[in-house]
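Go through this fold for my students:
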Amino acid sequence: MSSAVADAQTAELPRPVETRRGDMLYRQFGKTGETVSVIGVGGSHIGQASSEDLAIRIVRTAIDRGVNYMDNSWDYNNGTGADELRMGKALRDGYRQKVFLMTKVDGRTKEAAAKQLDESLKRLQADHIDLLQFHEVIRMEDPDRFFAEGGALEAFLDARKAGKIRFIGFTGHKDPAIHLRMLSMAREKGFHFDAVLFPSNVMDWSFRSFVHEVMPVALREGIAVQTMKPMGGKFILESKTVTPEECLQYALSQPTSVVIHGMDKMEYLEQTLGVVKNFKPLTHEQIAALAGKAKQAALTGKFELFKTTEHFDSTAKNPQWLG
């Protein structure tokens, strides 16, 4: 697909319905009937905050200021569950009822996925979560394992029937082709994902682009789009091509329901809330111009390490988590 065709298709994509309440923006979450804040609190960074008290303060301040989407994963922070444990404590005292709670599991087998989900529920001090996602779909064979007899989907379906989860999604950061294979296999098997998560940033626009290749498919099928890595960890900022505010403006201007953003300091939360408060979508021309500033750096692949290296691949470092 040429960049001109991709740009035109992206510009014409259906956008989730958006509403503003106070200083926060909310968007429709696919066909689920849910509405989520355009910013989600990234669980990995909650686990990395310098203290548990700070982590709890970040989560509760975010909720008090209108953020209602909470991201977690069973494997974050080297599998210690620090993010889920801290999130569980933060969501006490009535905060759980105010949020859309998500977590992810790595287990490729029914047994491993079910075990990890139960551990996550215990850490989160929750009897159910709103969205469970099949994590790190980064290998071409991962879709096969998800849908296989005795595979993770069976655990997900059992959990939904038991009321432990409400919605089902999948995540990955490696290559759009793998996401497209997962979506294609779901169609073949008559299964509809409620949500999908992938990277979206100024460099993704030009290099192995999830926005150009996966987002159109998901939106047209009514699958809620979640995006992540607006700054590629810290690496996109190290390219010196764009500012943090530009990164967030770009990510929020895409037709995603929520941008999951890591914030392990109060100043990062305040910076993000300020961008949302004053947010006006960039025009297609402004988006393309911003991506153009980062294009040459993007084409090297060295600033989106999650696509070109194993730096972000938790399950590559810990294959035993796959089951």
Notes: The mean pLDDT is 95.
